[in-house]
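Example record

One chain of 189 residues, shown exactly as stored in the release files.
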Amino acid sequence: MEWKPARPPMSAPATPAQSAAALIGLGVVTFLIGAAGLWAAASLASDGDASTRWVEAKGRVVASGVDTRRSFHASDIRNPYGPTTYEHRPVVRYTYAVGGRTYTADRVRFGERNAEDGDAGRDRAQAEADRYPEGMAVTVYVDPADPTAAVLEPGRQSTPWMIGVGGVAFLAGVAMIGLGLRARRAASV
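Predicted structure tokens for this chain:
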């Protein structure tokens, strides 16, 4: 008699209605992720545009450097925590006065990005921070409706990856919802 390994019991395949419901659910989640990406890109663009109309104030850089943080990516199946990588972000802190009150802020521009891992990323972040050395006098653009909101470089900055990823996810979600609804209709006939 030949020995055969025991097989786990096979589950029944999903019904067409279950498959349609799963596709609709996945579509809704993908749609929401895409909508959030598009909303974030639109918000950055809107804030950047608005900052061109903000009032100017004199300011001074009080700290300038690079913030380096560890980040983990679960991309390596052999190591569930993934390889350790680092993100480098330029940090420029400045003070300014509006209406006799002093404020501190650290936004250089709308649409800032962290630099990639490695020495090149750190060098790019350091080059950005070096543009605003500690003690430098700067012009700060301040939101007249909220003097805590300020920026050194007004205007819209490019965030094409947010628009691209958000747009693709949004459209993919719409397509999945449509296909799921079509499959549900076909399953109920």
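Notes: The chain has two domains: 15-52+155-189, 54-154.
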